[in-house]
Amino acid sequence: MNTNSFTKDFAAARINTMERMNEAHSTRLIAACLAGDEYAIEALVRQFESDVFRLALSIVGDAAEANEITQETFIAMLRSLPSYQERKSFKAWLYTIALNLSRSHLRKRRTVEKLRNTLSALFRIETQKVLSPEEAVIRNQQEQVLWDQLNSMDEKFRTVVVLRYFHDLSIAEISEILAVNEGTIHSRLHTARARLKQALETLPKE
Fold it and tell me: Is 45 helix (H, G, I), strand (E, B) or coil?
């Protein structure tokens, strides 16, 4: 038996099991919330508030505004909870609310530059390691080119990149959130990656 194949299959099965457990936990909390259990409401908010905040921050580029959107998202969630239907995962449903509110805020401000700065900061945090001075210069150049290119993209391409690579959402989840078929999501990601790769190729070779 191929050990690598077994390891990958086991890891995938473990992830799927954890996702089902999380969804089952959310389902129980939702039922308790609908029954008016304040502790369940607090638990449900705590389970997702960090992810919702990061999503909002990725879109609007301002921590204070992202915090406001996070609060608005959970207020809207509680108001709409009776109409939630389990054919869509709760996480995808909640992300849809957060994304719509984030877009609304972004339309009001039109501050795309803040988005670029915030995405750059998130990228550095998630890839943090000790770099030599030469590596640091190269990394900074690469980041600048990437974020300039990402910033120049239409929102439909920028959003799928944010959801896929900063929030680790599956294609199916992104499809649910954006109400777009999976083939279109794949196409948008392919286009976005190609543009980012092309942008990097403009850097001078060592």
Answer: helix
